[in-house]
């Protein structure tokens, strides 16, 4: 299975990269952009007996290492490799 | 007084700290390898600056799992002196030994510069040689030193007097212009509630000899050395 984990800065955390990219988009003419937040995308390939078990394990991975709960939120989806979405 | 200096793969300030302890202070020095599961009788453990384990994923995120860190945590729980400098501060936050986190400098630049620090606590083992609200000059060298904590944690830190160093102007005014990295409340260093675990972004080991442009950092090393003497005497 593959877990596709997205880690994002919490709303209160300053994101200077996002601010800079927002300014860059504005310079290019994308005036409709009101906010940009930059996070991380992490792919984790794992063995698990069920999707439920995989979810539990990945949740634990996120809490213990992949995200820092002080500054980051995380979300993920599990894909079984037999039915890739891409 | 025996100082332990932890060396992770990617640590770069271990020798600078070691030099100050050994050559400038004349105290006992013990390097501690990240795989050591024993602190070898050290009275104060320093986590120095650098990029431990390449700072992969986040600063300090991998280093906190090193075998030596389990011992550092136990040592801190027993009241042992633990001092994280720069990357060491980041590791202490990741390990949960200090609250909050260090994030990307608001400028997005790596900042290598002298800063002025207002010493708000001079009753600690780390700062006893400083006078009350002294302004000391200590260099910073980091890309991710912007201190963040959620509002509740931040107000708890302030109420408990856990902010030890704040970026200030030369006269000791804590102003936005003196903040090199966007740290909340101009925080440059904090201590745990018990007062035995200190984390700071600036580098006192780089200003402990006149040849290096300043000696304010030596006050902190001397404070630690003398605090150990007091324990022996009492």
What does this protein look like?
The complex is a heterodimer of chains A (86) and B (234). Chain A has helices at 16-27, 51-66; strands at residues 2-9, 40-45, 72-79. With 86 residues, chain A is of the alpha+beta class. Chain A has a single domain (2-79), classed as Phosphoribosylformylglycinamidine synthase subunit PurS (Mth169, Chain: A, 2-Layer Sandwich), CATH 3.30.1280. Chain A is elongated. Chain B has a single domain (2-233), classed as 3-Layer(aba) Sandwich (Rossmann fold). Chain B is built from five helices and eleven strands. Chain B has helices spanning 14-25, 67-77, 87-94, 151-159, 216-233, and strands spanning 2-7, 28-33, 44-47, 81-85, 101-103, 111-119, 135-142, 146-148, 163-168, 187-191, 197-200. Chain B is 25% helix and 25% strand.
Core attributes:
heterodimer; A: 86 residues; alpha+beta; Mth169, Chain: A; 2 helices; 26% strand; B: 234 residues; nine-stranded mixed β-sheet; two-stranded antiparallel sheet; 25% helix
In CATH terms, what is the fold-level topology of chain B? Rossmann fold
C-alpha Rg of chain A (nearest Å) = 16 Å
Which CATH C-level class of chain A is it?
Alpha Beta
Outline of chain B: globular
Order of helices and strands of chain A: EHEHE
In short:
With 86 residues, chain A is an alpha+beta fold. In chain A, 33% of the residues lie in helices and 26% in strands. Chain B has helices at 14-25, 67-77, 87-94, 151-159, 216-233, and strands at residues 2-7, 28-33, 44-47, 81-85, 101-103, 111-119, 135-142, 146-148, 163-168, 187-191, 197-200.
Secondary-structure map with pairings?
The complex is a heterodimer of chains A (86) and B (234).
Chain A: E1 2-9, H1 16-27, E2 40-45, H2 51-66, E3 72-79
Antiparallel strand pairs in A: 1-2, 1-3
Chain B: E1 2-7, H1 14-25, E2 28-33, E3 44-47, H2 67-77, E4 81-85, H3 87-94, E5 101-103, E6 111-119, E7 135-142, E8 146-148, H4 151-159, E9 163-168, E10 187-191, E11 197-200, H5 216-233
Parallel strand pairs in B: 1-2, 1-3, 3-4, 4-11
Antiparallel strand pairs in B: 5-8, 6-7, 6-9, 9-10, 10-11
């Amino acid at each position: 299975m593959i877990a596709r984990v997205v880690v994002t800065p919490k709303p209160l955390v300053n994101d200077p990269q996002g601010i800079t990219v927002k300014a860059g988009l504005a310079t290019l003419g994308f005036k409709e952009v009101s906010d940009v937040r930059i996070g991380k995308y992490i792919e984790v390939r794992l063995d698990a007996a069920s999707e439920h078990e995989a979810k539990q394990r990945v949740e634990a991975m996120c809490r213990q290492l992949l995200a820092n709960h002080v500054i980051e939120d995380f979300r993920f989806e599990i894909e079984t490799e037999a039915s890739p979405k891409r | 007084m025996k100082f332990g200096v932890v060396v992770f793969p990617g640590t770069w300030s271990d020798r600078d700290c070691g030099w100050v302890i050994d050559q400038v202070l004349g105290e006992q020095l013990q390097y501690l390898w990240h795989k050591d599961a024993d602190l070898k009788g050290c009275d104060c453990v320093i986590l120095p600056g650098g990029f431990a384990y390449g700072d992969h994923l986040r600063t300090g995120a991998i280093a906190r799992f090193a075998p030596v860190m389990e011992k550092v945590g136990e040592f801190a729980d027993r009241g042992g002196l633990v001092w994280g400098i720069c990357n060491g501060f980041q590791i202490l936050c990741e390990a949960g030994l200090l609250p909050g986190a260090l994030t990307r400098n608001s400028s997005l630049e790596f900042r290598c510069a002298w800063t002025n620090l207002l010493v708000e606590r001079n009753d600690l083992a780390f700062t006893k040689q400083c006078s009350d609200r002294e302004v000391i000059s200590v260099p910073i060298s980091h890309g991710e030193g912007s201190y963040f904590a959620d509002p509740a944690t931040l107000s708890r830190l302030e109420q408990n007097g856990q902010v030890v160093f704040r970026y200030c102007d030369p006269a000791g005014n804590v102003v936005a212009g003196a903040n090199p990295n966007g740290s909340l409340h101009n925080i440059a260093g904090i201590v745990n509630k018990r007062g035995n675990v200190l984390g700071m972004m600036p580098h006192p080991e780089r200003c402990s000899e006149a040849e290096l442009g300043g000696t304010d950092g030596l006050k902190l090393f001397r404070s630690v050395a003398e605090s150990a003497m007091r324990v022996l005497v009492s």
